[in-house]
Write a sequence for this structure.
């Protein structure tokens, strides 16, 4: 079973220490920053629902996951390769994760707002925002960034497929070919073998 606590960049483990005193809410956003192909001016948002349902719905923090994460992190940030038993248990925010377990039943106190799945929007548009809903969990919004930005891959595949279909439709029209209806015509011309080359089912 996935451990949401470990699904982050390791440098984020100690970020909870670095926020200014009195921080209560962190509001983060995700956007498409642009494209190297100047003619592609839009992106299609896709994939967030998979990541939410797979990793963030329901009780995702348990006592066992906290213990596992603490063990991994204290060794990762320690230096046992230099001296046996030289660990660093202070970077991992055990109190924060235990608070989520006890106060929220292991459910993540965050609010995510996003454009609808499948919507095409101009580049450099905010696609989703993340905000903690409990002031004691201000550190959680950006902690989850690593997992949430994995949506870039299915979004990129979706956006590229859309642009390819637009090119096919343009050349069908220019050459006088009927667009046709699925399963033939334009729908058949984009034989997508992308699934075998992607990084994951998500």
């Amino acid at each position: 079973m996935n451990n949401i606590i470990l699904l982050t960049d390791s440098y984020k483990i100690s970020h909870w220490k670095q926020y200014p005193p009195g921080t209560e809410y962190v509001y983060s956003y995700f956007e498409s920053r642009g494209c190297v192909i100047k003619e592609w001016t839009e992106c299609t948002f896709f994939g967030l629902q998979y990541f939410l349902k797979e990793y963030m719905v329901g009780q995702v923090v348990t006592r066992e996951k906290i213990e596992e994460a603490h063990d991994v992190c204290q060794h990762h940030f320690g230096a046992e390769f230099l001296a046996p038993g030289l660990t660093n248990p202070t970077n991992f925010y055990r109190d924060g994760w235990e608070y989520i377990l006890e106060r929220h039943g292991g459910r993540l106190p965050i609010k995510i707002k996003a454009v609808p799945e499948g919507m095409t929007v101009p580049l450099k548009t905010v696609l989703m925002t993340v905000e903690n809903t409990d002031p004691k969990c201000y550190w959680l919004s950006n902690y989850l960034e690593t997992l949430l930005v994995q949506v870039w891959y299915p979004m990129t595949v979706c956006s590229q497929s859309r642009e390819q279909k637009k090119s096919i439709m343009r050349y069908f029209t220019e050459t006088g070919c009927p667009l046709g209806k699925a399963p033939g015509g334009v729908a058949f011309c984009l034989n997508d073998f992308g699934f075998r080359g992607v990084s994951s089912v998500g």
